Predict the structure.
Amino acid sequence: MIKLVIQLCMLLIFVVTSSFGQDIRVKNIDFQVLVPSGDAQVKGYQYQALASRIKTLFGNSVSFSNQSSFYIRPQIKILTTHTAGEVQDVKVLKVELSFTLENPDLDLTFSSFKKNVIVTAESRDLAIKKAIQELRATDKNLQLFVQNGEQSIRDFYTANCAKIIQSSQVRIARKEYASAFS
C-alpha cells in the first residue's frame, strides 16, 4: 500500500513538473451521452433514439466513453401540436431538439445547440422520430456545437491548470488519493 502511494505521488510530481512551461494539448476528449428517462410528453425510448442519433452523427469526430466526465445532455421539447387532415388524423408538431455539453461535477456548460423542426406524421411518436431524423452531420451549427465545446473545455483547463494541480496536491497531502486524481 505504501509503495502504491509513493508511486502515485511520484507520478503526480512528474506530471506537475513536466507540464510547466508546456502548451497543453488535448487530442481527443471523450464524451458520454446522458439519456433522460422521459416525461409526460417524451418517452424514454425516444431519448434513447436521440442518444443513438448523436453517437451516429458524431461517431467519426468524437469519442464516447462511459467513464467521461463530459456529458452531452439531450432535450426534446414539444413546442406546439396541431391536428390536420380531413378527419384530423395528421399530427403537426413543432419540436425543439437541444443539446448541452457539460461537466456536472464542475457545474459548467461548455456549449449548447438548439434546432426547431416542424414535422407531420400520423402520430406524436412518429413525429418525434421524424424530428430526430432531421438532425444531419452536415449541419454547421451542430458541427460548431462540438468544436466550440471542445475549445471551451481546453480553454477552461488551460486557464485553471494551476488551481487544479494545487487542489490535487492538497488532496494528496490529506491522503485523499482517489479524489486527487479525479
About this structure: The beta strands are 30-33, 63-64, 71-84, 90-103, 108-121. The chain has a mean pLDDT of 80.
